[in-house]
Write a structure and sequence with these properties.
Elements (H helix, E strand, L loop, with lengths): L1 H8 L5 H17 L10 H10 L8 H16 L3 H10 L6 E4 L3 H10 L8 E4 L10 H11 L6 E5 L2 H10 L4 E4 L14 E2 L22 E2 L1
Parallel strand pairs: 1-2, 3-4, 3-6, 4-5
Helix pairs in contact: 1-2, 1-4, 2-3, 3-4
């Protein structure tokens, strides 16, 4: 809806056209988040060019830049999440596993400054597997030099994060649903409302000191 506001207020599109253009762009991006025949920033501009009405093609470059700024502003870690990661890392090894094309995912990782919070970062686009394939979880465990049974998977997607964690027979799975009415088909070991509640379900909580567990 932020995109719709920008298209309406800054570029004069009527509401219905702004909604349709935004939805068309987002559907195209989700279907194909990257195309290496374009630079990483040119690709979304190309998708916007196809999504906008003919008489608004001239704003393609500007709205693409607006979208990129909005995206990373809304993806940025909050202070509470940064504190959580920094505190967890005092006693746990932390791994990040993300599905997606290599360039698109690394762009997010780098622009959001995520690397410094994790001991291992895996992008499925660099590997022959993606979540929920158990092999990508085993690879993370290998990088961290730990056994799968000592790891906990924390994720918001049942079909990839929780299902994959269970297939890999990790020590536990923690689900953070994106929508309150979402029903868990692959039952996680724990469900929390937001990631900052994670310490409540970890071993030796709430201060989670002196634990030997690892978190992926």
């Amino acid at each position: 809806m932020k995109l719709v506001e920008v298209l309406e207020q800054q570029y004069g599109l009527d509401h219905d056209t702004a909604v349709e253009s935004s939805n068309t762009f987002l559907r195209a991006l989700r279907a194909r988040p990257d195309d290496e025949s374009f630079t990483i920033d040119e690709w979304p501009a190309h998708l916007w060019r196809n999504a906008l009405p003919k008489n608004y093609k001239h704003i393609t470059k500007n709205i693409s830049a607006e979208w990129i700024n909005l995206r990373f502003k809304n993806l940025a870690l909050t202070n509470d999440v940064i504190h959580l990661l920094e505190t967890l890392r005092e006693d746990y090894l932390l791994g990040l596993i993300t599905n997606g094309s290599s360039r698109a995912q690394w762009q997010k990782i780098e622009r959001l400054g995520l690397r410094k919070y994790f001991d291992c970062v895996l992008v499925s686009g660099d590997l022959p597997w993606e979540k929920p394939d158990q092999q990508i979880f085993f690879e993370a465990c290998k990088k961290l030099n730990v056994e799968p049974k000592t790891c906990i998977m924390v994720g918001d997607r049942l079909e990839t994060d929780i299902k994959g964690g269970k297939k890999a027979e990790l020590g536990g799975t923690v689900w953070v649903p994106l929508q309150k009415d979402e029903v868990a088909s692959d039952m996680p070991d724990f469900t929390i409302n937001k990631v900052t509640e994670l310490p409540e379900v970890l071993p030796n909580s709430p201060k989670f000191k002196h634990s030997t567990s690892k978190i992926c």
